[in-house]
C-alpha cells in the first residue's frame, strides 16, 4: 500500500527504546514541480508543461468563457525550465499548468494562488467555513488520538459548503445544503475557465459555460493526519472537474487509476497550488497520506510571535489542531474577538495545519438555491 510509504509514524515508548529513530521517508519518487531538477529521470519524462494564457478580469467586456478555445503552448518534459516555474517563455500573467503521461486528466497548477489570496482563503476557512452554526462541520470519526496503535493519527475535521454530503451512504441530498459562498463560487468558475483551456487527448477537461461549484469540502488536516484511498464518484456530473486548492502545510498526494490495485503516482502539493481532477483522474482512486510541518510564515505566527497566553491556549487545544480527551475541540467564541484577535486566531490555527478546499458540481442543472437560499435540512451534527 503506497500510503504506508509516506505516512507519518510515531513510535510507542517501548518501540522508541528499541529503535529510537525511524528511517526518513524516502521522497525520491514524489513529483515536485517547484524543484524540477529534483525529480527522477522517469518522473521528468512524464511531466508536461502547458502555458495557459491568462484570462481577462471579469469586468472586461470579453467573458472568460469566450476564451476557452485560446491557444495553449505545450512543451514536453525534456524542454522544461528546470528549477523554477516563474521565469520562462510565458508572459508574466500567463499561468503554468502541468500534466502527466501515465496520469491522464490530472492537472496541477503550482502557485496559482498568490500569498495574499492564500491568506484570504485560510482566513475564511478558519473563521467562516469552519463555523458549525452555518456549515455542517464534522469531527472525524477517529477524533480521539488512538492509544492502541503506534501510528499517531490526529483527527481531521471537515466542513461542507453547499450541498451536504452524507459520508456513510455516499450521497448528496437536494434538500440539505448550506449557502455556497459567492466569492468562492466566482473564483472556482474563473479557475475552471483556466482548466478548460488545457487540451487533452480524448476528453474535454471542463465545460465552463455550464459549470457550477455546488459543494465544497473543506478539509482541515493537522500534521500527522491523513486521508485514505478513495474515489469521488457520487456527483452526477463527472465530466466537470473536481477543483482542489492547497493551503498551509504541504502534502504528499497520491493519484492512481480506477483500480485500487494499480500503484499510484506521488505528488508534492504546496500552499497556493491547485489540482484539477479531470477525465480519467476525475474518477480515480486518490489519497493524502502525509502532511509536512512547513506552513509558510506568511500564513501563521512563529513561536517568537506568540504571547504567553496564546502558548498556554495552544497547549489547551484551543486552536483547531488537537482534540481534548473526549475527542471534542475547545469551543471558541469568535463573535467577541476584535479584528486583530481574529487575525491572530486564524494564523495560530494554521501553525501545523493544511487546509484543502475542493469543489465539485453535483447536479447537471443550475441550482440557484444553493447560492442564496437559507440553510435547510441541517442534521443534528451541526
Ligand atoms: O487533500 C487533498 O488534496 C484531497 C482531498 C480529497 O481527496 C477529498 O476531499 O476527497
Radius of gyration from the alpha-carbon trace, in angstroms: 21 Å
Termini separation comes to: 35 Å
What oligomeric state do these chains adopt? Answer: single chain
So what's the overall shape?
globular
Largest sheet: 8 strands, antiparallel
Query: Would you count the extended β strands for me?
Result: 16
Q: Could you please say which CATH topology of one domain applies here? A: Jelly Rolls
The fraction of residues assigned to DSSP E strands is 15-25%
Q: Briefly note the structural class of the backbone.
A: alpha+beta
In percent, how helical is the residue content? 10-25%
Bound molecule types: 2-oxoglutaric acid
What is the overall pLDDT average?
84
| Name of the CATH first level of one domain | Mainly Beta
- Spans of at least 5 consecutive residues with low confidence: 60-90, 146-151, 374-382
Order of helices and strands: HHEHEEEEHEEEHEEEEEEEHHEH
Query: How large is the count of helical segments?
Result: 8
**What would you say the CATH architecture of one domain is?**
Sandwich
CATH homologous superfamily heading of one domain: Alpha-ketoglutarate-dependent dioxygenase AlkB-like
Pfam family, one: 2OG-FeII_Oxy_2
Organism: Leptomonas pyrrhocoris (Firebug parasite)
Keywords: Dioxygenase, Iron, Metal-binding, Oxidoreductase
InterPro entries: Alkb, AlkB-like, AlkB-like_sf, Oxoglu/Fe-dep_dioxygenase_dom
